[in-house]
Design brief:
There is one protein chain. The protein has one domain. A hairpin with a 4-residue loop joins strand 1 and strand 2. Helix content is 44%, strand content 15%. It is an alpha+beta fold. The strands form two sheets. A three-stranded antiparallel beta sheet has the order 3-4-5. Strands 1-2 form a two-stranded antiparallel sheet. The protein is built from seven helices and five strands; from the N terminus they run H-E-E-H-E-E-E-H-H-H-H-H.
C-alpha cells in the first residue's frame, strides 16, 4: 500500500482552504458537492481516484455508503462501508430521509478516508456565533433534523438539552416549535433489552 499512502500524503499536503459553506445542527460544514469539486483535481493530480456507491451492508442489511480510494497505477485501494440507519426526518418521507442520510454519511466517509476535517465538531461547538456571521449563513433544516435523530439514537442527551443547543446556536433564525414538531413526527423506537450502536 506504499504507493497509495505516499500519494495520499502528497494530496493532504497540497489540500488548502476547504470552506465551511453551510450550517446544520450546531455546526458549520462543507457541502458534499463543494468538497468533491475541491478534492477531485488534487487527488487525480497525485494519481488517486475516489468514488462512492450505495449498496446493502451484508450484516446489518441496511443501505450503506461504500467509499473507495484507489491508487490508479498500482491498483492499491482502501474501502470503507458506512451503514445508513433508516430514520424518518420530520415531514420527509422515508425515501427522502434515507437520501438525506446518504448525503450526510457520504460527506463524512469521504472526509474520513482522506484524513481531512473541514467541519466543526458537533459536540465541541457550544459557543454561539456572532450575529453578523449568523445572518450570512443559510440554515439547513434537514441537517438539523438529522443531527437531532443522531443524538437521540446515541441516547446520552435529553431532548431538552438538544433543543437548548439549537436555540443557543440559531436564536431567532429558526422556529423552535416547527423544529420540535418535525423532529417528533416519528421518533425512532427502541425495543426493551436491545442496545443500539452507532
Amino acid at each position: 500500500m506504499k504507493n497509495l499512502y505516499k500519494s495520499l500524503a502528497k494530496f493532504q499536503n497540497e489540500l488548502k482552504g476547504i470552506p465551511k459553506d453551510s450550517s446544520g445542527y450546531g455546526y458549520k460544514y462543507c457541502k458534499l458537492e463543494t468538497l468533491i469539486k475541491i478534492v477531485t483535481p488534487i487527488l487525480n493530480k497525485n494519481g488517486l481516484v475516489l468514488f462512492q456507491s450505495i449498496d446493502t451492508e451484508e450484516q446489518s442489511r441496511l443501505p450503506s455508503v461504500k467509499t473507495t480510494l484507489a491508487h490508479i497505477d498500482s491498483g492499491e485501494a482502501i474501502v470503507s462501508w458506512t451503514p445508513v440507519s433508516e430514520v424518518k426526518l420530520g415531514s420527509m418521507n422515508l425515501y427522502q430521509s434515507v437520501g438525506a442520510g446518504i448525503t450526510y454519511f457520504r460527506r463524512y466517509s469521504l472526509q474520513g478516508i482522506l484524513g481531512i476535517a473541514p467541519d466543526e465538531d458537533i459536540d465541541a461547538n457550544d459557543e454561539p456565533l456572532k450575529e453578523e456571521k449568523k445572518k450570512e449563513e443559510p440554515v439547513d433544516m434537514s441537517e438539523i433534523l438529522l443531527g437531532i435523530a443522531t443524538l437521540r439514537k446515541r441516547g446520552d442527551i435529553t431532548d431538552a438539552e438538544i433543543f437548548e443547543r439549537i436555540k443557543k446556536k440559531y436564536g431567532d433564525r429558526v422556529d423552535m416549535e416547527i423544529i420540535k414538531k418535525k423532529s417528533n413526527a416519528k421518533k425512532p423506537t427502541h425495543k426493551k433489552g436491545n442496545r443500539e450502536t452507532s
